[in-house]
Amino acid sequence: MGTEATLLEVNAMKKYFPIKKGFLKRTVGYVKAVDDVHLTINEGETFGLVGESGCGKSTLGRCILRAIEPTEGSIKFRNQKGNVVDITELSPKDLRNYRRDMQLIFQDPYSSLNPRMTVLNIIGEPLICNKIASGNQLRERVKSLMEVVGLNSKHLERYPHAFSGGQRQRIGIARALATNPRLLICDESVSALDVSIQAQILNLLEDLQEQFNLSYLFISHDLGVIQHISDKIGVMYVGKMVESAATDDVFKNPKHPYTESLLSAKPVPDPRVKKERIVLQGEVANPANPPSGCYFHPRCKYAKDICRKKAPAFEEVAPGHFAACHFAKDLQLTGAAGQ
Amino acid sequence: MISDEQTILEVKDLKIHFKLHEGLLKAVDGVDLSLRKKETLGIVGESGSGKSVTTQSILRIIPQTAHLEGEIILRSEETGKNINLATLPMNGKEIRKIRGGEISMIFQEPMKAFSPVHTIGNQMMETVLLHRTKDKNEAKEIVLQSLREVGMSNPEQRFDEYPHQLSGGMRQRAMIAMALASNPAILIADEPTTALDVTLQAQVLELMNNLKEKTGTSIIFITHDLGVIAEMSDNVAVMYLGQVMEYTDVDTLFHGAKHPYTLALLKSMPSVGAAENKRLEAIEGNVPTPINLPKGCRFFSRCKLAQDGVCNVQDIPLVKIEDGHYVRCVLVDEKNRGGR
């Protein structure tokens, strides 16, 4: 595993969902939701994962937690003592200890909280499950967690319906923080919120990162949010990572045509910026029946013969900048407007 | 708001109130809007700002329990008369003729807006038969033509397909085709791209702009995404808690906005290309529920510039500070007057 600072290293991760048909439920094919993905996250770092719906970004996030069992690949995680463990090889019993270190923050603050549990029970549940605290100690811990995320600790006995969307998301974050995790997977955690509330939650996540030295895997389809919060970015398309680099490099100097088109598709909140927009034709390829060669070639305006025949490798095209495109080194692609 | 012969829709002092156990919910409280020919009016606001209810009331598709006050005047192109939509009976012949005819609507969730048990073709035929022709063959031609216009591949086949057979982007296209099939003078688009991915959103926005050029339809575009607003609108109304806070042309909105809420909204948005690692200036607190609100400015509780005794004394009017630029803020108004 990379350097001392590396917290998580995902290697050649695959998740294939079988498609079953007929009376005998024979497997007739696979949906390649995640296909040969590599990523590393350092301690205290935010890795932004961006892509359109159905590109496998959530599946990847869940595979890292082993909430979904990955088909292949290794997930190396450095535990608090500094030992590196491969999470995919852990028995269910051992896994429990590692789950403490990794938590998930969900998208929808309305469906991710049980309406019949009080805030005390919701935030306290991970503490009870992991036998971290009980009784009065639990109460105190939950109170302090509520204060950390900016909730009034007097509202301990209230039910989720008494809170607004932004406050509920704070409850979800407090629950994720309860076990003192080191890696938080934020799956579209601010997408369901209004702009003004979204800014509050993004600020909170950044404060918490500083305070507890957290690492984030931040999954979102919103490029503005991703650019704001991430140190590194990975762009996914139909189950594959097509580009990965430091945030600035991706936005200023994209190396994959798909990234270029994503950047140009994002509406700029300034009517004076008139930009040449690349409007992608067609739709995202079907991961059960992807096109030959490079998955992006039917929508790519730079596609040549080789793209139809051969799948490009995910290679380092510039220092620290990875891309999966045959022409990554030759193409002069445009970055985001306003850069 | 100024109105001239180019104005085709005017909303005057619109109030929509719901009586609840908790009190009177003022979803919309004194909204003025005007829409001119070939104009795109963007309405932007957070959830609960009343933007959807306002536009739904234009078509009179709000719940019957709602109490509606004010005027919604449509200058009908067909008859050349002014019709006050607010006073028409909800299920009457007149309003039903306008719905989907002169004014049509695109919804956010194309899956929910289509009936799952009828084919795309049948659903679109219904509109066309109601509003444009009685001849079935001609109606089918119109439907196929409008499917072609929105860039649907293979329209003859799509005509016989059910909504679930189409992908999200295609469904939204079908929805736009359906709305345009009746040749409306006004198109209301309620967050039409919110459920779509950026690349699909780009396709749909381009399509809407092209169709507007071609047909000259006026559009009311509702969204919470300021980026989309910048791209689509000519004029923008910023709504908060049932009131228009600022009303101006799109360039002024992004480069010379005056209302503290508009400014805060612009600052709180993480945007591609912004200076990085800058902390977002979030608006504190939450959008209050519009029940039993105190007197004064709606934004008082969250405004950084709010002054006790100035902002919360009486209801604040929407004031013209320049031609075509209206602001609902006491402080801006005072400054403006002092400067002259």
From TrEMBL, chain A:
The keyword Transport applies. CDD domains: ABC_NikE_OppD_transporters. It comes from the Bacteria. It holds the Pfam family ABC_tran. One of its GO terms (molecular function) is ATP hydrolysis activity. Keywords: ATP-binding, Nucleotide-binding, Transport. Residues 19-263 form the ABC transporter domain. GO terms for biological process: peptide transport; transmembrane transport. InterPro entries: AAA+_ATPase, ABC_transp_ATP-bind, ABC_transporter-like_ATP-bd, ABC_transporter-like_CS, Oligopep_ABC_C, P-loop_NTPase. Belongs to the ABC transporter superfamily. This is ABC transporter ATP-binding protein. It comes from Pullulanibacillus pueri. The lineage of its organism: Bacteria, Bacillati, Bacillota, Bacilli, Bacillales.
UniProtKB/TrEMBL annotation, chain B:
PANTHER family: ATPASE AAA-TYPE CORE DOMAIN-CONTAINING PROTEIN, OLIGOPEPTIDE TRANSPORT ATP-BINDING PROTEIN APPD. Coiled coil: none annotated. One of its GO terms (molecular function) is ATP hydrolysis activity. It is found in: Cell membrane. Transmembrane segments: none annotated. SUPFAM superfamilies: P-loop containing nucleoside triphosphate hydrolases. One of its GO terms (cellular component) is plasma membrane. This is Dipeptide/oligopeptide/nickel ABC transporter ATP-binding protein. GO terms for biological process: peptide transport. InterPro entries: AAA+_ATPase, ABC_Ni/Peptide_Import, ABC_transporter-like_ATP-bd, ABC_transporter-like_CS, Oligopep_ABC_C, P-loop_NTPase. Belongs to the ABC transporter superfamily.
